[in-house]
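Page 42, continued from yesterday. The earlier attempt failed because a stray header line got pasted into the input along with the sequence. Redoing it now with the clean sequence only.
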Amino acid sequence: MIVDPSGTLLGKLAHICAAEPGGCRYDHNTTDEERRVIDNLFIICGKHHDLIDDKSNVKKYPADLLRKYKKAHENRFKKAERQLIKQFVDTTQVNQPTYPKTLKALAKAIDADDMEGREEEIRGVRRFVKKIKELPLTEREFALKLAERMRRRRKSELPVDDVEGAFGISASILKRHMGVLEHHELGSIEDTMNSTCGFGTVNAIVILGSRFWIFAKLRGMRLMN
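This time it went through. Structure tokens are written below.
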């Protein structure tokens, strides 16, 4: 065992070819510096460290065999490291959007010809796409579904109760989704004051970024070119 369950390193640093004359597998053809380089060192458990450095076992554990052990051991941990790295993939970066140079296709799709040549609108859409690109996929899909509902109802905002009921989600889940959207500056939950007969009541409403309705209609970015 090289590392125990608590994370304590139990292994010992061993030389393949001894650092000093008289040691196991000492190679007089190498320099002191060469005997200290990483290629001549490897970590091994205490038990096997004693075995390979026992002079009676020199023939059993020649330098070439120890180098083979070192390479196999390192490859095993490199494989585990690669597998660990693969577990952590930023899914927002798997597919990259195409940023619009003009809004010709978009303007045609939503029947807004005056949008096509406006540089300010192009820059605004590009900024919006950049924000969307970084949005986690779950919140991205939720926002698009929410925008579709707003578009169908011709509303720029919806009561919290309406959203929870329509999507069958709890207040905590809605708060979590909207918290992510707010972090990306793409939506929020706001409190509004309604006044009836002199009495004020506070209602919570869900608000999305103003351009979400476009993406709700297009369901993606492919028409922007």
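Notes: The radius of gyration is 32 Å.
Reminder to self: strip header lines before submitting.
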